[in-house]
Amino acid sequence: AQKVTQAQTEISVVEKEDVTLDCVYETRDTTYYLFWYKQPPSGELVFLIRRNSFDEQNEISGRYSWNFQKSTSSFNFTITASQVVDSAVYFCALSEAFGGGSNYKLTFGKGTLLTVNP
Amino acid sequence: KAGVTQTPRYLIKTRGQQVTLSCSPISGHRSVSWYQQTPGQGLQFLFEYFSETQRNKGNFPGRFSGRQFSNSRSEMNVSTLELGDSALYLCASSLDRELYEQYFGPGTRLTVT
Prior knowledge:
The complex is a heterodimer. By secondary structure, chain A is mostly beta strands. Chain A has strands spanning about 5, 10-15, 20, 25, 30-40, 45-50, 60, 65-70, 75-80, 90-100, 105-110, 110-115. In chain A, the strands form three sheets. In chain A, strands 2, 5, 6, 10, 11 and 12 form a six-stranded mixed beta sheet that branches. A four-stranded antiparallel beta sheet of chain A has the order 3-9-8-7, with no helix packed on it. A two-stranded antiparallel sheet of chain A has the order 1-4. In chain A, a hairpin with a 4-residue loop joins strand 8 and strand 9 (about 75-80). The radius of gyration of chain A is 14 Å and the shape is globular. Chain B is mainly β. In chain B, strand 9 (about 85-95) and strand 10 form a beta hairpin. Chain B is globular, with a radius of gyration of 13 Å. The relative contact order of chain B is 0.33. The interface of A and B includes residues 44, 107, 108 and 111 of A.
């Protein structure tokens, strides 16, 4: 069974600090997808990134960067120079195929509440 | 392009009643998934529909059911409500079968008293 662990329940930083959110996953499949979502106080989950299991290249998007390491089953998310608007709950998620490869389901971690203080 | 819409946004029901929640996916999206979010259990997968067929189902009792219409709009129904059903119910739509990118709606906040 697939599992996603976000060990950090809450993180509090001061604006402009860098912060890394950890994500460790478990899966038996060789083909899977990893995601990060942001959930601001409004409640709507916002898609941030998708990474497939064959692509271990790190990705940078503005102040956001992601470090995917299959050897340690981790997909960590770093926010550089954090801002107050980054305050939200961040979820890591794993999607893997089952039932012959034609069906997929998404398993979420418990989330990390990030608070960025001015 | 309009995003995923969910109605109603807020709902208060009494134990034992039933409730129907609605989700309209992004135009062109054929996959709709439902999730329950509670402080204790986090985000849990309920079920997923693709082209009017339920493909996947999470570990929820039979009181939770859903369906998808030919226009991809989906409804979920919870019968015989229990206090523990109080949660934020999120709907997500995806263009393709592989759930490459799921786009979420704002959710329906259900309170059972």
